[in-house]
Specification:
Low-confidence stretches: 1-13
Helix content: 10-25%
Shape: globular
Oligomer: single chain
Mean pLDDT: 89
Strand content: 25-35%
Largest sheet: 8 strands, antiparallel
Number of helices: 5
Radius of gyration: 23 Å
Amino acid sequence: MPDGEPRSRVEARFGTGFLTDTWYVAALSADLRPGKLIHVQVIGEPLVLGRAPSGALFALRDVCPHRAAPLSAGKFHRDAFGVESVACPYHGWRFKADGACTAIPSLTADQELDVSRIRVRRYPVEESQGLVFVWMAASPTGQPDHPPPYLPGVVGGAPKLVDRMVFDAHIDQAVVGLMDPAHGPYVHRQWWWRTAGSEHDKEKRFAPSEAGFTMVRHAPSKNSRAYAILGGKPETEITFRLPGLRWEHVSVGARQVLSLTCLTPIDEARTQVTQIAWSDHPAFTLLKPVIGAMARTFLRQDADMVKLQNEGLKHSPTLLWIDDADRQAKWYQALKREWVQSRREGRPFHNPVSAETLRWRS
């Protein structure tokens, strides 16, 4: 093969659908105060998330079956028997957390209608480590067969950083862009991270992990200057997990930092990106405004590059992916294919990622 020729020509068939039968991050626990309703959209589905005054959490399809008004614009109702429900803002139809209708106020006493037979779709929802996960099943009756992921390093109480924005991209492009190891010197060039001429050869070990893969624990690259804020001898481990979670767990002695990026597809053209950081390291108290500004800068630089990339993607190009810098993108494709195939065949998921060392320059 001639020098400089890519070792692999890959047509990235992205944007063709979303993974189902899996947990997506829909909100943060702090977003849902008792008695509050919020609207979110996940894989094209409109959802109303709510925490009843009693504290119970639920997720329903955010469309009233009567006249299609969003239930999220309504309010909570408690009847004389203490039954909590959401009242539609249009005609007051009320729905419990399981989706069953409990009342249609416009009915007269002599009109017979079993309102309990009227339902809106209920979505399984779980709260874990300050995150609200919604199970998006392939069928309306599908139920979770595994719990939401457990994240290492959620320490120090409430998150020290929360930043959110929408990427104008399908989740596939957002995931591949954020896991790409070679774009740093070009997209994230600034004095406190990477400067011109600071590129070095990198060699990192990877291993399969639950529904994804992990760059095993190592000392950060010497040209990644921001780690100097933490002092000591930091070590980091970076993990990706389907459908769209990427986290970096940093340890500095007994202190920890967890930086989590949640990618939640809104629809085929937009992805909600939520960046969250927890830490018990004093730097996150003393330098919180500085660290927050750095994180926001990173996220917006990636979003700007996605917009620029969209100009080329309009022409449906065949994309050239090379080893080893694009191996993680190939793993992501393989993981998605195996997830879909395992669910279709009703068998356990077999991780297609193999342990290996990757090398690139950045």
